[in-house]
Write a structure and sequence with these properties.
By secondary structure, this protein is mostly helical. It contains 20 helices and twelve strands. It has a three-stranded parallel beta sheet with strand order 1-2-3. Strands 4-5-8 form a three-stranded antiparallel beta sheet. It has a two-stranded antiparallel ribbon with strand order 6-7. The radius of gyration is 32 Å and the shape is elongated. The relative contact order is 0.08. Bound molecules: glutamic acid. Glutamic acid binds next to loops.
Length: 487
């Protein structure tokens, strides 16, 4: 059987972590099986849906590197892929159910429905529709029509049935049809409800597997009853666990940003995000946590999707992001870091090749300290601020050692002699310096580090010095020699 799966967002806001994970699982599943991945827009809630959200969601998917084979923008043979463009299709199927006696018009007013709900709840029963309009006489119907009431269309839920969902993640889950009242499939404005539209679409689009969030599990018996009534083949269902915060409460803003956009703008890499999302509720087994997307495609299977809640662990995301920042291609990381350096004023807005080359050197020197790219601006100050001062007493003490002037003088000579300061040149220079001075590396490197940056820790000297260049390196060494660094 060919695998066809879909991600079906409602465009009522940005793409959230949970939605992104659903999209990713579907996409990985499709790519693993050489199947198709479809993006369908579920925009029947016209008040809350917007084209802007739709575009944001698609942009976030693209940023993650998720592509689709069919959808509103790429087309396909099973469209349209936006529900508001499919209204005729739903109306036709609804009419069929009505004619077959599997659905009926309901004229109940909101007030009546609310009163029924309250009464049931007071008795401790599940609120549900009690079937009032199931058996209206033609006269009653005519009367309501004459009053101008606009009916909803309700599905006739079969009585006394056990509806089983054979879920690929959760196993067999059973529901009693009697706990489910006749539910609305078309609203009075002739717009389909979610449960109806989703069935029509998944059938029409030949969806083989419905992989979605656990919160939809309770909708599934309704959908299964519709498939059965329409004599349509059901897809396989797989409901993926909720995402909880580290404290085991439902994931919310308290646990970190919830939208993909926010992670993007704070400097998370799509590779890290995808790796992180994939591990929320899925694991190939073993200790390994770093997976390139190609490996994820190879390894992903529904059998390894966990039944227990997934935990959103921001520390893990930060760790993964740092990992990808350190280990990805330097030019790629530089391109992503440049906008942050520009915004902070370190690099010109119209950055030319020289600016980019400088950014590259700075990123190379500092990327091991970053958990996200926006932090790069906190680490590059040492390359710009020529008035270096020791940051604390410890740093000051390093400069008070008696060998310090000797170190500064010899280093100055070597810098002048070298003329140009490439990394390898500087590495060689430092080695020579230590050898010639003969009192051990620590007494050489620490004073140089404080002289050049004011700090005891930071990027490698052989990365700092090429960025500073001859003139600024010498000026900083001089500031130690003439004591002005302490003023
Ligand atoms: N539009 C629904 C949602 O965003 C889709 C649910 C489904 O995948 O069936 O939750």
């Amino acid at each position: 059987m060919s695998v066809r799966v879909r991600f079906a967002p409602s465009p009522t806001g940005p793409l959230h972590i949970g939605g992104a994970r659903s999209a990713l699982f579907n996409w990985l599943f499709a790519r693993h099986h050489g199947g198709q991945f479809i993006v369908r827009i579920e925009d029947t809630d016209m008040e809350r849906s917007s084209r802007q959200s739709e575009e944001n969601i698609l942009a976030a998917l693209r940023w993650l590197g998720i592509d689709w084979d069919e959808g509103i923008d790429v087309g396909g043979n099973n469209g349209p892929y936006r529900q508001t463009e499919r209204l005729d299709i739903y109306r036709r199927v609804a009419q069929q159910l009505l004619e077959q006696g599997l659905a009926y018009h309901c004229y109940c007013s909101e007030e009546k429905l609310a009163a029924d709900r309250e009464r049931l709840m007071a008795k401790g029963e599940l609120p549900r529709y009690l079937g009032h309009c199931r058996h209206l006489s033609p006269e009653e119907k005519a009367k309501f029509e004459a009053e101008g009431r606009k009916p909803t269309l309700r599905f006739k839920v079969p009585e006394n049935r056990v509806i089983a969902v054979d879920d690929r993640v959760r196993g067999r889950v059973e529901f009693e049809s009697d706990g489910i009242g006749d539910f609305i499939i078309m609203k009075s404005d002739r717009i389909p409800t979610y449960n109806f539209a989703v069935v029509v679409d998944d059938h029409d689009m030949k969806i083989s597997h419905v992989i979605r969030a656990e919160e939809h599990l309770s909708n599934t018996p309704r959908q299964i009853m519709l498939y059965d009534a329409l004599k349509w083949e059901k897809p396989t269902f797989a409901h993926v666990s909720l995402i909880l915060g580290k404290d085991r409460s439902k994931m919310s803003k308290r646990h970190g940003a919830t939208s993909i956009e926010q992670y993007k703008s704070s400097g998370y890499l799509p590779e890290a995000m995808v790796n992180f999302l994939a591990l929320m509720g899925w694991s190939p087994g073993g200790e390994e946590e770093v997976f390139a997307v190609s490996e994820l495609q190879k390894l992903f299977s529904l059998d390894k999707v966990s039944k227990s809640p997934a935990v959103f662990d921001l520390d893990k995301l930060n760790w993964l992001n740092g990992y990808y920042i350190r280990n990805s291609d330097l030019d790629y990381i530089t391109d992503l870091a440049v906008p942050y350096l520009q915004r902070a004023g370190y690099i010109a807005e119209d950055a030319g090749p020289e600016d980019v080359a400088l950014a590259r050197q700075m990123v190379k020197a500092t990327r091991k300290y970053l958990t996200n790219l926006s932090e790069v601006t906190e680490h590059v100050g040492i390359f710009y601020d020529d008035a270096v001062k020791p940051v604390d007493d410890k740093a000051r003490q390093v400069l008070a050692q008696e060998e310090v002037p000797q170190v500064m003088r010899l280093m100055k000579q070597k810098v002048y002699a070298a003329g140009q300061l490439e990394e390898d040149v500087v590495k060689g220079m430092l080695k020579e310096l230590t050898k010639e001075l003969g009192f051990g590396g620590k007494k050489v490197y620490m004073p140089l580090r404080v002289a050049l940056t004011g700090k005891l820790q930071g990027p490698e000297l052989y990365e700092i010095i090429p960025i500073l260049g001859v003139r600024r390196t010498v000026a900083r060494l001089d500031a130690v020699l003439d004591g002005s660094i302490l003023n």
